[in-house]
Amino acid sequence: MSIEVNGKNVEWVDNETVEQLLKRMKYTFPLVVVKINEKVIPKKDFQITNIPDNSKIVVLHMISGG
Amino acid sequence: MDKEKSEKIRKKLKKSTIGIAGLGGLGSNAATSLARAGIGKLVLVDFDKVEESNLSRQYYFLDQIGKLKVDALKDNIKKINPEIIVETYNIKLHKGSMDGPFKEVDLIIEALDNAETKTAFIEEILTKFKDKPIVAASGVAGYGHSDRITTKKLGNLCMCYDELAKSSDDDILIAPRVILIANWEANLAIEVLLGEDK
Questions:
Q1: What's A1-44 look like in SS3?
Q2: Domain membership flag for residue A27
Q3: Residue A32 lies in a domain
Q4: Which of A24, A32, B22, B180 could, after both became Cys, cross-link B27 (CB 3.0–4.6 A)?
Q5: Which of A32, A35, A43 lies nearest to residue B154, judging by beta carbons?
């Protein structure tokens, strides 16, 4: 019953959404690209997408500059 | 060097098309590097004009101030190699139609400035093109810390990434680091197109 977030093992929580996971991980940064098992999750779906058990999650912070 | 190998690489690059979203410090420098590398076709997208302040890090010149970035950069690329096909789009990318100019390219380089647009662009490209590689960057501002920059590979998305860098809203953009990351993106693009050099 665990998930991997940015390479770290984290406890899996039943029915947790992407938004809740970001909050639990203290990823308060407003602009992120989130991938669950290689699939990109659009920001508009953060509230309605649940984190599956055993999934691998990558959260990338996007900051201005270019 | 192995002649056969260099010929194979030259041919493959000449057949390739790369799209670049944003022609600021990242995009303009990545584009000229890719032109020198012999990429056959470049698709350039930007809505802006060249300003004097851009000259501190972007691949433009004093006599180009006021010109559209797409036109100025096309001229500069043609001065490096007139054979390269350059397609330009003087447009602002809007959510929902960001994929438009990039339908036919082999690989996309994200070289946008604003974090919000970067995020929306990557999201939309990854959603709309299932197999198209995209090279993106985050953490360009500041100076030094070259070895904090890493490459993150996540399926089709390759990112030049420094998670400890500050936003350009809070930190200065200076040529060496911006151009380093621009070339990091260009180098990654070539690696993706050719496959890893063994």
A1: CEEEECCEEEECCCCCEHHHHHHHCCCCCCCEEEEECCEEECHH
A2: yes
A3: yes
A4: B22
A5: A35
